[in-house]
Amino acid sequence: MNGTTIDWARVRSDFPLLAREVHGKPLVYLDSANTGQKPESVIAAVDRYYREYNANVSRAVHTLGEQATTAYEASRDKLAVHLNVHRNDLVFTSGTTMAINLVAYSWALPTLKPGDAILLTRMEHHANIVPWQLVAGRTGATIKVAGITPDGVLDLDALYKAMTPDVKLLGVTHVSNVLGTVNPVREICREARSRGIITVIDGSQALPHRTVDIPAIGCDFYALTGHKMCGPTGTGALWARREHLAAMPPFFGGGEMIKEVRFEGTVFNDPPHKFEAGTPNIAGFIGLGAAVDYLDALGMANVEAREQELLAHATEELNKIDGLRIIGTAPHKAAVISFLLEGAHAHDLATLLDLEGVAVRSGHHCAHPLMQFYGVAATCRASFAFYNTHEEIERFVAALIKVRKLLA
Ligand SMILES: Cc1ncc(COP(=O)(O)O)c(C=O)c1O
Fold first, then answer.
1. Distance between the two ends of the chain, CA-based, in angstroms?
2. Residue 408: pLDDT above 90?
3. How many angstroms does the Cα of residue 96 sit away from the middle of ligand 1?
4. How far is the CA of 33 from the centre of ligand 1 (A)?
5. Domains along the chain with CATH numbers
């Protein structure tokens, strides 16, 4: 599909929830960085699974079981094509959190020793901090942090200087969920790799907004979540280099991840199944496959172009509001705007905006260290998706101006 020929109003109508009202006003949903809305095709795929072929996967030879397994594994194929990777290097997880924990427990815990260091950045989500702290606590490794500049850009000089020989692993987000900053992960991975450092990229906020070509990035691990990219909650994946998946022990065990179990010992299944114990979120992953189909039909380049337009419009309008400060003004951003309004608490602002039908998130956005850097407890965050409209941005800005007067 060509960007100029996309009817974005029609695209928006694919999302039934966006037609609802909140507090008697048409909903303006600006919280897609928290979770994205789902198109009809995703909802229908989940519904169809439960109505027509609900069965467990990889177990039963009956028709329903085969249909469920085929649809579930087809989603892995679709996601693999979307990311330009091999399907067997893609482990399904419940989301990014679980994907990063899988690296932490299956790669880092058996590998790291006292004297080793894990390098993180100031802009990481707690999901890319806390698992490493847990690992550090159990291995004796330490955590190092690379800083950012006040406009919310990674300080690359500082990052590369911090890549000392003790650093064994680098965790970095592809796109910041608070600042919107798009990090140059390709260059960062190249630098890390030349120093023998393993890279873990948190792709949660990248997948919804842009084309992600994992081999081009050159990382060791790439974690992602499905619910921010039009898919159901409880879906996600970890992509890993094949040699890591082959060498890593599973960190949880049970059915489906084995070839043979004896009380004397177990032979594990091949990756990715080796890391997928138990009954998975079958309906969710079938829905995720439909979400990938949906995004691929739109074209990620078109999605990105549309969102960049919305971001530019919203940034321009917000900059006109007296007393409003945008946190995160990197030159290369995804469609996420965190902001503060002088004299207004972020939660009060979000509550009053909700009364106007506008849904934004307020709080620390699971990024305490970033809030500490900016010296604030909370921000408001408006995050956009391709299904938002210019008219919604105007309604959001008008609501903000109204709320500002109320709070003055
Ligand atoms: C940058 C980033 N990393 C990790 C996560 C965690 O994702 P999930 O809760 O889906 O596991 C999020 C979700 O808010 C995020 O924005």
1. 47
2. no
3. 6
4. 9
5. 3-30+300-407 (3.90.1150.10), 44-296 (3.40.640.10)
